[in-house]
Amino acid sequence: MASILPFTEANTQRVASLFRKALRTAYDSSYKFDAYRLETIKIRQQFEVNRHISDPTELEEVIAKTVDKLQEAKHPDPYIAPCRPGGTKFQRNIEVPRTPLVPGDW
């Protein structure tokens, strides 16, 4: 992947996306909110330590390590909201179609 210069909008979006993925991964693996909150504070501190990296090569290395760490910590059975695709209530009550059931010109 081509290196992206630090402090640009593209890099900011990329790091923000990694941060959101890290938070979701922490949410999937914690059952209590207080444990999740402590984990989010640790994640934020880890991202803040690397906030001022200005060398593109070093930045790529840190991002690659973060991606590897997220892949390693990925939960095998992540939480899916019930009404979202893949959730337990997704399309449970599908609307009845308003079109005629038997096609034809009556």
Could you characterize the architecture of this molecule?
The chain has one domain (1-94). Helices cover 53% and strands 0% of the residues. The N and C termini lie far apart (60 Å). It contains 3 helices and no strands. α1 packs parallel to α3 (56-73). The chain is mainly alpha-helical. It has helices at 9-29, 33-49, 56-73.
Features:
106 residues, 53% helix, elongated
Please summarize what this structure is:
This protein has 106 residues and is an all-alpha fold. Helices cover 53% and strands 0% of the residues. The longest helix has 21 residues, at 9-29.
What order do the SSEs take from the amino end to the carboxyl end, as H and E? HHH
When the domains are counted, the total is 1
Largest sheet: none
Mean pLDDT: 86
Question: Which residues form runs of ≥5 with pLDDT under 50?
Answer: none
Number of strands: 0
Roughly what fraction of the amino acids lie in strands?
under 5%
Shape: elongated
Residues in helices, as a percent range: 40-55%
Tally of helical segments? 3
Structural class: mainly alpha
Radius of gyration: 21 Å
Span from first to last CA? 60 Å
